Amino acid sequence: MSTATIIDGKAVAADIRAELAARVATIKRERSMPPGLAVILVGQDPASQVYVRSKERQAQEAGFKSVAYRRPDDISEEQLITLIEGLNEDPSINGILVQLPLPKHIDEAVVIHAISPEKDVDGFHPINVGRMIAGEHSLLPCTPLGCITLLKRTLGDLSGKTAVVVGRSNIVGKPMAALLLRENCTVTMAHSRTVDLPGVCRGADILVAAVGKPKFIQGDWIKPGATVIDVGINRVDDGDGKSHLVGDVDFAAALDVAGAITPVPGGVGPMTIAMLLRNTLESFCRANRVDCAGL
Ligand code: NDP
Question: How much distance in Å is there from the Cα of 125 to the middle of ligand 1?
Fold first, then answer.
């Protein structure tokens, strides 16, 4: 028997994009210059191409200036940094995103450090990471920010809840834990060396899965009534030349136990791009002294 509420990230993301589009329309009427997002794509990775096209399209639909810089995979690190430095100086660009992963000959850390922290709409620059950990204002990483937004819309106040984050990557798991802590959750970070992972997960009021393994979290690892956020995006071969996406949670089994759960696709994924646009608008507002209250 299915009991869990399905958290419709696609619908929430559409609402947020509509709110952002309304704010951008007002800005364009009053100032003529829209917020600008630059996305840099290096090489031909098919998944990255799809992500960049969606970011470009959704930014344009919401009224942003959106520019994609597509570069061959033999671009040098120096050339890439020169491109970023030019965008750092460009007043019509408020957000700079470098689509990861980059080719092996380019050091991702060096590239991320080259982005101005004020335009780092992915929230990966160490200055923004440090500010986030210190509880200061900063641009926050899009996927964890999208997860927190869904959690707050589902549960309201998160204070005092026990949260378990499975996965400790710099782009999802670690910032997710930091943001849950900021919301006054009691947070456990689990990873590949965690002892008794099923038992750790069973203690969670909020369970966030960011592992990258299809259907890894089993139904009987979930506390009855828990809220489950499935960050995983895994492409699974159907064997007949077709494939489909699944998350890190066994969704069918979780439906019987959880109180609420995000589907894959249609859960966290759409929120990530909505948060990217939100961050770009916030960066614009700060640069141009426009009120961004309520963003
Ligand atoms: P990483 O591969 O960087 O990190 C995976 C984490 O999972 C690691 O910390 C690893 O632990 C942990 N892990 C691996 N195996 C186990 C195990 N057996 N038990 C417990 N923990 C384990 O992945 P990302 O964080 O980049 O991505 C995670 C998932 O989220 C992927 O499916 C990715 O596609 C998806 N994703 C979705 C986004 C969205 O917009 N919805 C955005 C970004 C990612 P250890 O550190 O010990 O190795």
Answer: 20
Closest CA to 188 of 261, 173, 75: 173
Contact 213, 232 (CB under 8 A): yes
Rounded to the nearest 10 degrees, how much is the dihedral formed by the CA atoms of 56, 280, 33, 23? 100
How far does residue 169's CA lie from ligand 1's centre (Å)? 6
Domains, in order of start, for the chain: 31-116 (3.40.50.10860), 142-269 (3.40.50.720)
Length of the chain: 295
pLDDT tens for 68-103 read: 999 999 999 999 999 999 999 999 999 999 999 999
pTM of the model: 0.97
3-state secondary structure 235-283: EEECCCCCEEEECCECHHHHHCCCCEECCCCCCHHHHHHHHHHHHHHHH
